[in-house]
Structure formats: C-alpha cells, structure tokens
Amino acid sequence: MMARRPILALSVIALLTGASSRASAQGGMAGMDHSMHRMGPEIVIPKGAIYTKADVEFMQGMIAHHAQAIVMSRLAEANGANPQVLKLSRKIDQSQVPEIQIMQQWLRRHEQFAPDTASWHSMRMDGMLSDDEIKALSTSKGVEFDRLFLVGMIKHHEGAIKMVDELFKSPGAGQEVDANIFANDVVSAQTAEIGIMRSLLAKLPPK
Q1: How many Å apart are CA 46 and CA 103, to the nearest integer?
Q2: Which residues of the chain are under the pLDDT cut of 70?
Q3: What InterPro entries does the database record attribute to this sequence (predicted)?
C-alpha cells in the first residue's frame, strides 16, 4: 500500500493540472470550442444515422463529467478519507474509468470527436465542481474532506442524472441501443450511489 501512494499522488496531480500541451495541440487540430458544453469540431450527423447530435454531445460531455469525478475520487486516499468514503471513492474510480473508454469507443465508432480525460478542464457540465471547489477539496483533510467530497459528489451525480434527463427530452435522442443502455445505466448506478452518500453524510460528526 505504501508503495502505491507516491504513484497515486502523481496521477492525481497529473489529472488536476491536466496535459496542457496536449490539450492545446488538440485544440489547434480540432478547432476546440471552449464553450461550456462543446469540445472539438462541429458535429455532423450522417444521413440515415440512428443517433442524433444530442447523443454525441451527451457522450462528449459525460466524458468530461466522469473525468472530474475520477479526479475527486483519487484525492480520497491521500487526503485521509474515512474507510467508508474511501471504499465509495474507489468504486466510483473503478467504474467510471471503463465507462469513459466505452464512451470514447462509441464516439470513434460513429466517427465523432472523442475527448480525452483532460477535457474536464475546459468543459463544465451540470453538477461539475468549479476550480475553486476542486482546490478546496484537494487541500482538505479527514472529516472536512469527507464532507466536501460527499456534498460535491452528490451534486456531481445529480448533474449527471440531469444530463440523461435532458438527453431523453431531446427529439430522437437516446434511441440508439448502446447510447440508450449506457444512459440508463448512469441513472441506475448514480442514483444508488447518491443514496449511499447521503447516508454517509448523515453519519459525519457535526461541524
């Protein structure tokens, strides 16, 4: 366990700071849009496709959303989270890393731009933490960290659920089989985790 901590710390620092040179290079090549909700070239949907622009935007945005959740989760071990919060943070990390890969593969399969995990620096989707909130979380310790993490991740998960809701409200969106299954899985998993986090938050000592 001790041998993992320096590696873990370095990986968290890398995620927090981001690969700025790589992001800049991608922005130059792909015409990165630094708006709150889009990254990459203009989305073009082929005629006859069974997915929509909203599906593509959802996948691209959720990659950034998941990437920030992973950053938050990887702070737990180094910042002295209690065992239950640490267990949950590891679950979020271990589940959302492969989900990012699933979304990237979906986008590439449909010949759409697939953001990398540095995208959370330039995209702010529903529920994502601000830079100041991330900084506060990264510098907190023990019970203070637990409280900020749980409050922040509840907000984060609620934002993801809202993104799914907005997807299904968009005409024709969420009908492609893989996109539909993935979006519904996000709601199921994150709704369950919100319940766990609210329970953990209620057990923390008062401020």
Answers
A1: 19
A2: 1-39
A3: DUF305_CopM-like, Ferritin-like
